[in-house]
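[Meeting: bench + compute handoff]

Bench side (C.D.) handed over the final construct sequence. Compute side (W.E.) agreed to return the predicted structure before the next meeting so the bench team could plan truncations. Sequence as handed over:
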Amino acid sequence: MTDDATSPVSSPAPSPVRLEAWSEADADLLRALNAPELMEHLGGPETEEQLAKRHRRYVDLSADDPGRGRMFRIVLLPEEAVVGSIGFWEHTEDDGPVYETGWSVLPGFQGRGVATAATRAVAAEARAAGLHRFLHAYPSTGNAASNAVCRKAGFALLGERDFEYPPGHALRCNDWRLDLTAS
């Protein structure tokens, strides 16, 4: 029999990452994340013009109403190294508006739980924004690592679907969903 007053209380381990709002200074990070091996499941690397437009969207999203979403750079702790990007934004799903998320982690930092920790952190940000009940992720069916991140971060697999990303490029994806109202 254990006395609850003297039982050790376990607290959750601190996150190994911190999310920082995307800024003008993150253009070089976006270029680094445009490497062929990181864009393999997303239609291949983007042109410099496409990167400039995406960077502008990320900066604008992070300066707008937080309910619409946010983009972040991922900072690995305690190293304070910028190791990737993640965000959430509004997306219209079959049954209405939801949040969508996506991430990318630089090759030297993959396989260390960074993407999973960042996905949990971005889910907390989306939950705090409070506009939509669900957060979806759409990794390609062939992207084992990103599908594993969804599973580890607590998303439920709804099934496969066709998705267009980038525009004009058909992609067979898994539709993962996280209920932001569940604790």
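W.E. noted at the follow-up: Residues 48-63 form the longest helix (16 residues). C.D. will use this when planning the next construct.
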